[in-house]
Every structure is written in structure tokens, then in C-alpha cells.
Specification:
The protein is an alpha/beta fold. The protein has 2 domains: 90 residues, no CATH class; 158 residues, Nucleic acid-binding proteins (OB fold (Dihydrolipoamide Acetyltransferase, E2P)). The protein is 33% helix and 24% strand. β7 and β8 form a beta hairpin.
């Protein structure tokens, strides 16, 4: 039987090609980190490979034996996410957008609870790769980074007497509180799985020039930790504050 060009298969191949290109682009460029936890990227790679295999299969069979041809235009529904990506160029949630979700000021309690559960079950085989790095002390200061964020705060709250009035250097974005002119919340966005489950955590900071700051502004601060006498939870008494550009790795990823 004579083989003819199959329009339906050709259309589906074009859709698969665009999907494959989009997947590869956001994975290769690192843009995918704006939407999912790094540990989930392997599944996206698997998805891209699967689409690639389907694409090759369709291209091979684009010429088929002559028969009544039915073109399924529903394929183009799969192009909606591609079109949105190309036109809007999504870059993840902004600081101002996530502020409306509320801020978890007692995140350290959950960290301590997780540690107690881990110790109770003697689970020493699991290796955390995000936020649980070594505590860094540099020039007499505790330096908090994405890599050691959770480790440092667990240590601070576990040994409050030891770290009372300790100098801490940390980066984050500003969230102002209504009715508070001399304090703000230094916040960070935490992702457990994907952007949909993003949580905002923060620590209160005492700063006399708070009115000069704006919501969502990124800053690096150096402050003295007050734990014992803070009425609303742990607080950093700011000694210096420097506005900074939003870092590329603005999310903290939690295992």
C-alpha cells in the first residue's frame, strides 16, 4: 500500500518538538529552580527524555500507509504552557507576592521537632544536602548562608544561653509589620517540593531606620542575637544593614 505524508502525525511531532525544546531550555538554563526543588529535577529530565523518545517515534512514522486521515487539533492544547512560557517568561514568585501568604515566625520549633523525631528513630543514614551544612564562624561572627541556614538556627535555638548576644550575619528580604516603626522581619522563601508549597520564614529585627526600608527589599545585616528577653520570640539587634541585589539563589530548599 502506498505510503503518504500523515498530517496528524506531523502536527503531533511539532507539538512534541516544542515541548521537548521548552523542557531542555528551562533545565539547561537553571530556570527550573524557580519552580521545583533541585531534588525533583531528575524527574523533569526523565520527562524530557520520554518526550524525546515519543518525538523520534512520531518522526519515523510520519509517512504511513494511505488511509482515511483524521487531524486531531486537540494536540494544540499541549502548547498552552509553552506559549505562556514564551510570552510571559515566568521567573518564580516575587517577594511581594509571597508576603501575603503570611510568615512563619516559629519555624525553628518545627526544625527542633524534626531533629527529635530523627534522633528517636536513630535515623543517621539520611544525608541532608540543602540548608544543613556546617556552621560557619568568620571574624567572630556566625555567617548564615543557604547551605547552613537550618543547621545554624537549630544550633542557635538549641543552645540559647551559649549564643545570647552572638553576632550573626545573614541575608534576606524585608517584611514590615503594621504599627512597628523600629522593627521588621528579615524573611526567606523556603521550598520543600515546588513553588506551590513555598513557605516564608523570618526572624524579627530591631532597626531604628525601618521607615527607610520597603517591603521586599533585599538586605544583608549584622546583628546581635537576643533570645532570652525577647517578648515576641528571638530578635536580631541590628548593628549594620546593607542593601543588596536579589541573589540568584534566593530560595532555601528543604529536604
Amino acid at each position: 500500500m502506498k505510503r503518504t505524508f500523515n498530517i496528524d502525525t506531523a502536527l503531533w511531532s511539532i507539538v512534541l518538538l516544542l515541548l521537548f525544546y521548552t523542557f531542555i531550555k528551562i533545565i539547561y538554563s537553571g530556570e527550573i529552580n524557580n519552580f521545583i526543588h533541585p531534588d525533583m529535577i531528575k524527574y523533569s529530565i526523565f520527562g524530557a527524555i520520554s518526550i524525546g523518545i515519543m518525538l523520534i517515534y512520531n518522526i519515523v512514522n510520519i509517512f504511513s500507509e494511505a488511509e482515511e486521515e483524521k487531524v486531531r487539533y486537540g494536540y494544540f492544547l499541549f502548547l498552552i504552557p509553552v506559549i505562556i512560557y514564551m510570552i510571559i517568561k515566568p521567573s518564580g514568585l516575587t517577594e511581594r507576592a509571597v508576603i501575603n501568604r503570611g510568615i512563619n515566625m516559629e519555624f525553628y520549633k518545627a526544625l527542633m521537632a524534626d531533629e527529635e523525631v530523627s534522633e528517636h528513630h536513630h535515623d543517621h543514614k539520611h544525608s541532608h544536602s540543602h540548608g544543613d551544612g556546617e556552621i560557619i564562624r568568620r571574624n567572630g561572627e556566625l555567617v548564615v548562608s543557604n547551605e547552613n541556614f537550618f543547621t545554624t538556627f537549630k544550633e542557635l535555638y538549641k543552645n540559647q544561653e551559649k549564643y545570647q548576644e552572638e553576632i550573626v550575619r545573614i541575608k534576606g528580604f524585608v517584611v514590615k509589620e503594621k504599627g512597628e516603626s523600629e522593627s521588621f522581619i528579615l524573611s526567606r522563601m523556603v521550598v520543600s517540593c515546588c513553588a506551590a508549597d513555598m513557605e516564608v520564614i523570618g526572624i524579627r529585627c530591631k532597626y531604628k531606620d525601618t521607615p527607610l526600608l520597603y517591603n521586599g527589599q533585599w538586605v544583608e545585616i549584622r546583628g546581635k542575637l537576643q533570645v532570652k528577653e525577647a517578648e515576641k520570640g528571638p530578635m536580631l539587634m541590628i548593628e549594620s544593614l546593607t542593601p543588596i541585589e536579589k541573589p540568584e539563589d534566593s530560595y532555601i530548599y528543604r529536604d
